[in-house]
Each structure stands twice: as C-alpha cells, then as structure tokens.
Amino acid sequence: MREARGGDAAGAFARLRTFGERGCEVWRGVFGIPDYDAYLAHMRANHPDQTPLGRGEFLAWALDRRYAGRGPRCC
Amino acid sequence: MNKLLSILLWGAIAVVGAFAFATIALKRGESVSAVWLVTAALAIYYFAFRFYSRFIAHRVLAVDPSRATPAERHNDGMDYVPTNKWVLYGHHFAAIAGAGPLVGPVLAAQMGYLPGTLWILAGVVFAGAVQDMIVLFASVRHDGKSLGEMVKMELGPVPGSLALVGVLAIMIIILAVLSLVVVKALADSPWGTFTIAATIPIALLMGIYMRFIRPGRVGEASVIGVVLLLGSIWLGRAVAASAGWAPTFTLGGTQIAWAIILYGAIASSLPVWLMLAPRDYLSTFLKIGTVIALAIGIYAVGPALRMPDVSQFIDGSGPVFSGNLFPFLFITIACGAVSGFHALISSGTTPKMIESEGHIRMIGYGGMLTESFVAIMALTAACVLDPGVYFVMNSPAAVIGTTAANAAQVISSWGFVITPDVITQTAKDIGETTILSRAGGAPTLAVGMAQILAQALGGKSMEAFWYHFAILFEALFILTAVDAGTRVGRFMIQDMLGHVWAPLGNTELLPANIFGTGLCVALWGYILYQGVVDPLGGINTLWPLFGIGNQMLAGIALLLCTVVLMKMKRERYVWVTLAPTAWLLVTTLTAGWQKVFDPNPAIGFVALARKFGEAAANGTLLAPAKTVAEMQRVAFNNYLDAVICGFFVVLVVAMCVYAILVSLKALRVSRPTVQETPAVPRAPGAVYA
Fold first, then answer.
1. Cα(B595)–Cα(B587) distance, rounded to whole angstroms?
2. A42, A63, A68 member nearest B75 (Cβ)
3. What is the pTM (predicted TM-score) of this model?
4. How sure is the predictor about A65, in pLDDT bands with cuts at 50, 70 and 90?
5. Which ipTM did the prediction report?
6. Is some CB atom of chain B closer than 8 A to the CB atom of A64?
7. Are A70 and B491 in contact (CB under 8 A)?
C-alpha cells in the first residue's frame, strides 16, 4: 500500500519533470533555438559520417543566428 | 452536429460583438466601459480570422498543405527545421512584437478613442495581417528568401537595392525614436533610471548562468531574472528616497541620451550570449505576462473610458502630434494596424521553420491579430486615464509651460478641466516628482496600466510599484531593440560599404566592424540627440517620420504581394492586396508631402526650418531656443528631416512605378511567371494539417 503510494508520487514527480522539460523546450523554441535531440537524430540518420555539434556548440550557434545581426528585429 | 455547434458558436460571438459595438455606439457622449471596447475588438478578430483569413488562404493563395515547405525540403536540424505550429506561432509573435504597438496608439489617443480603435481594427484585418500572411506565403514559396531578395527576384535588381536602402533608413529612425521614448520616461526619474540600470548586471548574470553554470537552461534563467527585476523595482524606491543615492540616478534628458548612445555602442559589440540574449528572454517573458495581466485587469476592474470618443484635435491642432486625422492618424498608429517591419520578420526565420503551408494562416494572420490586440489594450490604458492627466503628460513644454499651475490652466482652457493639485497628486501616487511633458507613450501607458493593475491588485499603495514595473517593461524592450538593431544596422552598412571598398564589408575584420558599429550608432545617436533638444519635444517631429517610413515599407511589401499575385495569374483576387496598398500609398504620400511642404510650421519641416532660420538671421530668439546657434541647429535639423521624408516619398513612388510595369507585363502573359520554387510533394507519412 505504502509502496504503491510511493510509486504514485514518483510517477507524478516524473510527469512533472517531463512537463517542465517540455515547457523549457517550448520556451527555447519560441526564441528560435531548435531542439538539440532532434538535430542529433537528424545527423545520425542522414549524415552518419559527420560529427555533430556538441550541445554547447549547438546552443552558441543558435544564439548567434538569432542575435548576431543577420535577422532583422521589430520595433 | 459539428456544423451546428460551429453555427451556434459563431452566432454567439456575433451577438456578443454586435452588443459590444452597440453599447459603444449608443453611449456616445456618456461614459463607456473599456470592457466593451476590448470585447468588440476580440469579436472582430475572431471573425476576421475565421472568415477572411480562410478566404485568403484557400481562394486567393490556394495554399497547398501537401506541398513540401523549405523546412522539410532542406531539413538540416539547424536553419531549416519543421517546427510545431504553436511553438512557431510563439516564435513569430515574439519576433514581431516590440514597443511600437505600445507607443503609437497612446499618441493617437489625443483624437479620442474611436478614430484609433477603428483604424487599428480595420487596418489589421484588411492590411496588416494580410501583409504578414502573404509575405510569409511568398517567402515559403520562394524557398525562404528574404523580402529584399524577393523584391530583386520578382521586380528587378534596382528595386531590390532601393528596398534595402529604405530598410536601413527606417532602421536608423526606429532606433532613434525608440531611444527617445526611453529618454522621456527616465529623465529626472531616479527610481526608473535605477531599475533600468539594474537590468544590465541582471542580464550579465543570466548570460553567464546560461553559458557556464547551467548551459541552455533558458527557462530557469528567465525565472531568476524576473525575480531579480522585481527586486530591483523595490530597491529603486529606496534609492529614490535616499538623499545620498537619488542624485546619482537623477539624470537630465541629454545625459540619458548620451548614456543610451554609449550603451548601444558597447552592448552591440559584446558577444550575444552575454547580454542581448538574456535581455531578450526577460523582455519576452515580461511582455507575455504583462499583456495577459492587463487583459485580466481590464475585465476585472472594468474601468470607464474617460477620453471623449472623438476629441476636438481631429482638426490637426493637437499638442501631441500636429496634422489632421487624415493622413496623420494612419501613420501615427503603425504597429498594431499595419507595420512594414513585419514583412522582414515574415521573410526571416519563420518561413524556414514552417512545417506545412496549412500553418501560414495561423502564424501570419493570427500572429498579427495578437499584436493588434496589444495595441488595443495600449489605447484602452491611455483612454481610461483622466484626459487632463493625459494631456499634461503628452504636451510639450513649449505649449503647457513647466509648472503644474500653468499646465492646469492651459489644459483646462481646452475643455479638459484639471487642477494643479490633481497633477501633483498623480505624480506623487506613481512615486515621481513630475508628470509634465513626458511624451512618447511609455509613461502615459505606465500610468494607465498602474491605475488598472493597482485597482485589480494591491490598491493605491501599489500604484508606484506598477508604474515603475510598466516603465521597466517598456524600457527593457527598447534597449533590447537598440542592441539588436545596431547589430543589424552594422551588417547592412558593411554590406553597402563593401561595394565601395571591399575591406569595409568584411564582417570578420575588427576595424571594419568598429567602423560599421560606430557609423550606425552615430547616425541614430545624432537623430536621438536632435530629438532630445528639439523645441517641440522631439516625439512630435520624429514619430511621424518613423510612421511614414514604416508605412512606406508596408507599401513596398504589399506591392510585392500584389506583383506575386499577378505573376501567379491570380489577378481575379488582386484586390485583396491592391486595396490596402492603395490606402497605404495615399496616406503615406499625403503625409510625406505635408510634412515636407505644409506652410504651417507645426506640420511642415521646411516651414519650421525657414521660421527658425529667418529669425536667427534677424537675431531674434524663438522660445525655447536660448541662443542663435541653437536656432540655426533647429533650422538645419528640420531641413535634414525634410530630406529624409522626401527620400521616403521618392522611394515609394519609384517602387510603385516598377510594380506597375511588372504587373502589366504579367497580365499580358497567359501563364504564371512567378519565380517560385517548383512544387515537391511532402514526404509520405506527413500529416496534412
């Protein structure tokens, strides 16, 4: 009984965590930072010969694309 | 069953909308609750989206969800990524939404709440959202190309280059006028200045956090940043109250202008992760939160609109900006009704990330409707204020003087009765020493928001907090735009200079970069400085210049849309873009002509320049200039404004001629001549949404 309840709490916590992670992913998407895992999957499937960027490099690239000046911004 | 439900739902929305409009119409002359205005706007948005955008998508453009988009064809996990419709909608909205829709409607409120509301609604439904959606469509069909590239492809190389020069000119003016809004909000306000200054270390901290401590944790860092920002507002109150610290943060207009110029130069040279990106996360967080809070606040409090429906200033004699309702209302409210700048966003990253052509309607048309809703709420916040307070805050010192007693007397004589006590009490309520001549929209909106939010949450004692929260929110936006805009401006300048002397165009070369950044900052910095020392208060001069430029860009974008429709052989529906194009050209060209040549010095740049030039030559001084040199500078600056304005007019006329020639040619050919990317069917298994 107690165990089941503990399992429920863990499950709820895991769900909350997934929910939080999804939230962060959406928030990153709003700022034009593409999903890193999707990028990795794409690279593995289509360009297995190339080394994909690391998470940090990928993030830095995304920031540069959005802010380094090429894209216009609104008033 | 579904059909019945849909009919019932749309019927109910129609009834609510009609009731809201009837309430506004029948109660003219009495006080109307702001709730009706907002409700009527929402009903219009629903209808426009459900019927007109659907008509455009299916009949005019014939979007084809089975056709692969650039995101699918070039999917590389980086630049081209098919993105969830709602995430992309958020991304697109965050990119188009700025300070523009918060400023224009507040300035236009001097003519009453009705003219502004009607233009925002009609403008967005028939022009603004149409432009955003069709440019997005065109870019998707042109393999994600930018506006400039599409103009070059469909209209020719000369119009392409002209469009780029026009974009740079508007960019410079936007940066100047937005910075001027910040100057007007922060001058002599230690509380405001402190909180804005505090955003710099907060952003740096967030930048380092996201880079080194918890890489990529954008959500976490944003929450931490917002909490610190709220803390800085509390601290700001203490700073303003402290005899030791208050003078340090009490700066005059020109000092703040120099601070912003310096900030722009330094910030735009730092790595983007350190300051620009965290600032952008913060301001987007605040924007979404504040817009939702304001909407809830309006419904919870139900404040009455105290501004008359139509004021006497539609005749052009208003203190906030001069000129008749036609054409000046239509260039004063740009963002929120129709904004040319959006054409750059709709042809930027969004078309490279769209998953299906079926999403174009929601993202292009729907995104702009949301921006328009922000404009309606800004207008509402300005119109629930005591009109006397509104005019105290927005009239230049040359008109109302510099004391509460004088201002109260002048404004009461216009029929908006106000006592000096009300003026000083309002300033005290929001924790400031004065509210006189704080033009530019931000402070007025902040007072309106503070009064609504304080009634909803916290009461009178919270008004000062909410006021500074609103100022912080707007200034944060604008400073982010100054930073990002300077970078964009630098790239454009280097692109152009590269044609003159190749090394200047090398963006990897430090001296070339410094030169580009310096030139860009110098250009907008000069216009900003001239606005700060302008005898008419700056906003009066610069906002119309920005409006003309922005609407001219919208005119160019809609001309492109028209040409694309003609070349697709869809001339049967060309009125969808031709009607708003014609309206924009008529208003922009009339306004441009009047700003240059009108004999009234309050409107015409040349007339004002002559007035000051002649007086200076005779040795007489015209207030508020104090020396002959100042008078000569006013004359020179007005000639300069006349030249910029004239340039916009010539540009738009030239584009129009090119568009007509290309359209006529397309009409004579019996097959489509548009340069779209050939259709490729979507991958098997793709969901046709």
1. 12
2. A42
3. 0.93
4. confident
5. 0.83
6. yes
7. yes
